[in-house]
Amino acid sequence: MSTTDAELQELLGTLFQAHPWHGVSAAWHERGALNAYIEIVPTDAVKYELDKRSGHLKVDRPQRFSSMCPTLYGFIPQTYCGTRVGQLCSERTGTEGIKGDGDPMDICVLSEKAFTHGNFFVRAKPIGGLRMIDAVEADDKIISVLESDVAYGHINELSECPQGLVDRIKHYFLSYKQLPEEAPRRVEITDVYGRDEAAEVIKRSFADYRERFGAPEDRVSELRRLLGK
């Protein structure tokens, strides 16, 4: 990045709040923690979701049933579930025609702490994930632990978590969209995977993002070009 671009980026960061999806880096090294934007917390009776266009948190819908998300829940910035994420799901499940769901990569963050509301970033360490398919779309849920968390921070692999906790997470995602009388089930979880597979899913979502939205590091230069027209 040129000196002028760096100065412009610093000025923009001073004047404007960054878009949680597009304007913040995940800042991830494969074996370490990354930035995760939290939309909902376990006590929320309403499902909040980032408005993709404005970058503001909005009400998506009231939670349909009594079950609530058992973890902090949000997404990894500058990720996108596109062709590569869908292809990986197809390869792993042997099911043709799976595509990404067109959203940023979802992430659950385990922590012993209580949080009163969403709309914040945390540093979280991926330890595994759920390979979830919603109709014909890959809808993976990366599972992570809050960095330095007293209860969960030491965990490196999903297999180290209590099985009951993993089952609770699975149950929530299998049931939170499903009316009691609906059949067949709208979503399925085909696999529970560990840290290495989670890393592969995340890397593919970064690549899908760049293909869909371009390289984040080039945006200041592109802004200068457009302003110069």
Order of helices and strands: HEEEEHEEEEEHEHH
Low-confidence parts: none
CATH architecture: Alpha-Beta Complex
Output the CATH class name: Alpha Beta
- Write down the overall geometry: globular
Question: Could you state the CATH homologous superfamily?
Answer: Inorganic pyrophosphatase
* Mean of all residue-level pLDDT scores: 93
- Sketch the major β-sheet: 5 strands, mixed, barrel
CATH topology: Inorganic Pyrophosphatase
| Beta-strand percentage range | 25-35%
Tell me the strand order in the biggest sheet: 1-4-6-9-7
Oligomer: single chain
The tally of structural domains comes to 1
Distance linking N and C termini:
21 Å
Describe this structure in words.
The protein is of the alpha+beta class. The chain has 5 helices and 10 strands; from the N terminus they run αββββαβββββαβαα.
In short:
The chain contains 5 helices and 10 strands.
Ordered list of secondary-structure elements with their pairings:
Layout: H1 3-15, E1 34-40, E2 46-50, E3 57-62, E4 72-75, H2 83-93, E5 99-100, E6 106-110, E7 120-134, E8 137-138, E9 141-146, H3 163-175, E10 187-194, H4 195-213, H5 219-227
Parallel strand pairs: 5-8, 6-9
Antiparallel strand pairs: 1-4, 1-7, 2-3, 4-6, 7-8, 7-9, 7-10
What labels describe this entry?
5-stranded mixed beta barrel; globular; two-stranded antiparallel ribbon; Inorganic Pyrophosphatase; 229 residues; alpha+beta; 10 strands
